[in-house]
Amino acid sequence: MTADPPPNLEELLAVLLSREVRDWETSACGAVSHIPATALLLAEATHAPHAQIIILGSEEYGRNLGKDFHFVAQRGQLDLFFISGIQIDAEGNFNLHVIGDPDAPDFRLPGGYGTGLLYYTAKRVLLFRTEHTARTFVPKVDFVSGALKTPDKIKRPRNSTKVVTPMAVLTWEYEAERWALESVQAGYSVQDVQENTGFDLLLPEQVPTTPEPAPQELHTLRTVVRERMIETDTYPEFARSGIQQA
Amino acid sequence: MGVPFVPIRGLAGTDVFKRRDDMMIMTNPFDPEEDIVVARAQNPDVAILHGLKADREGNAILRRHGEDLVVAQASRKVILTVEEIVDKVSPDDPDGTYISTINVTAVSHAPFGAHPTGCPPRYEMDKRQIKEYLECSGNDEAFQAYLDKYVHSHKTHEEYLERFGVASAAPR
Fold first, then answer.
1. In the predicted model, what is the mean pLDDT of chain B?
2. A60, HSE (Cβ side, Cα atoms, 13 Å)
3. Looking at the predicted structure, is the pLDDT value of residue A238 above 90?
4. Domain check: are B88 and B143 in the same one?
5. What does CATH list as the number for A9-240?
6. B156 and B137 in a common domain
7. Which of A19, A58, A138, B98 has its CA 20 to 30 A from that of B82?
8. Domain check: are B36 and B47 in the same one?
């Protein structure tokens, strides 16, 4: 019997994100979110069979209009939401709009759509990024698409905000108002993470290694989840090319 | 909705909020302890939307996904282009979202009118054309050339469709 191939970047992130999805809760991802969509379906197929899952744009998991789903969030009933960003900064802001001067940008992105709202209304937010570099983790984003600091009298649930990357898991410390290093992915050191982050992280004395994707998680991902995505037309092209066949 | 503004949760502290003059923070009139962002109503003069079918009274079925119905409800005039004209559309049509004639100003029959975008479940987007559109929209000169090639060179919608070989498949 040959060993299963190690997880690729997308598989690693999908597995790590899936572990944050809780059973019986309502968890959602927006449009153009193949990694979170995979994570949601993996969680449903493993530890969270009763999770309410919303994958925007999906026939099977879309739960209809974006408007509906925003209303769920505004009512305080969205437990978990996934957001990516081209930049994430020391103050907990993320950028999905432009690189450079917003009035004369070097590089223009599709924008934030509802993320500036959902960053406020979801109880927990998982930020993720496919690279962990100092160009992503900057002292200050070029454009604030979503803000973590909130004016005093504006209501906002505050459970947790984390970032998951190929190198580490960061968690926002609300008292200190800083990102702390929660765990480091296998194969990387605390020093690697700090050197590739453009601001100082809060470093606990002991930083654990994130448990690697287990054989069972990868197997379920590469069989049940992969098939389910193709079957339900949920990012089928990604499922075919990005998730390895068991 | 016909109201001057709506309260929304979120966006405070973002550059989206800072750069717009149609959003501000006010105190909740029912709870002095709470501040909330309010956004001024957007009321387009005219909305042009593409749908699946319309009937002779102007009731129609819009695409199932998206916010077309909200756009129509906010706009002063609404022009619909549709794949098909039928005698009567049903509010229960499973293919899409029903819009009542009270929201509709005019209807025009335009098979494949969404091209090069899609109109599910009738047809999907034309990926090759969208790719070319994106490549050409990088600067004014390339975009003008795109318009000349695909839009201005055709006198009618039928001529445009023939170029892409979809006219023969149009519902009759």
1. 91
2. 11
3. yes
4. no
5. 3.40.1080.10
6. yes
7. A58
8. no
Q: What's the pTM?
A: 0.87
Closest of A16, A28, A25, A79 to residue A57, by C-alpha: A28
Spans of all domains in chain A:
9-240
CA distance linking residue A71 with residue A11, whole number of Å: 31
- Could you say which of A65, A146, A152 has the minimum Cβ distance to residue B67? A65
Per-residue pLDDT, B170: 47
Give the Cα separation of A115 and A239 in Å (integer). 25
User: Are B11 and A116 inside 8 Å of each other by CB?
Assistant: yes
Task: Using only the alpha carbons of chain A, give its radius of gyration.
Answer: 18
- CA distance linking residue B68 with residue B73, whole number of Å: 9
DSSP type of residue B21: S
Please give, rounded to a whole number of angstroms, the shortest distance from the CA of A127 to a CA of chain B.
17
CA A15/CA A13 separation, integer angstroms: 5
Nearest to B63 by CA among B113, B129, B136: B113
Q: What is the domain extent for residue B10? A: 5-40
Q: What percent of chain A has pLDDT over 90?
A: 80
Q: How large is the average pLDDT for residues B3-11?
A: 92
Residues of chain A positioned with their CB less than 8 A from the CB of B35: 151-154
Look at residue B168 and tell me whether its pLDDT is greater than 60.
no
Give the nearest partner residue to A120 out of B10, B66, B70, using CB atoms: B10
Share of chain B above pLDDT 90, in %: 71
C-alpha span between A39 and A11 (Å, rounded): 9
Answer yes or no: do B118 and B99 share one domain.
no
Residue A144, Cβ density class (10 Å: 0-12 exposed, 13-18 middle, ≥19 buried):
buried
A59 contacts A232 by C-beta, under 8 angstroms: yes
* The pair of three-digit structure tokens given for residue A160, joined into one six-digit string: 């947790």
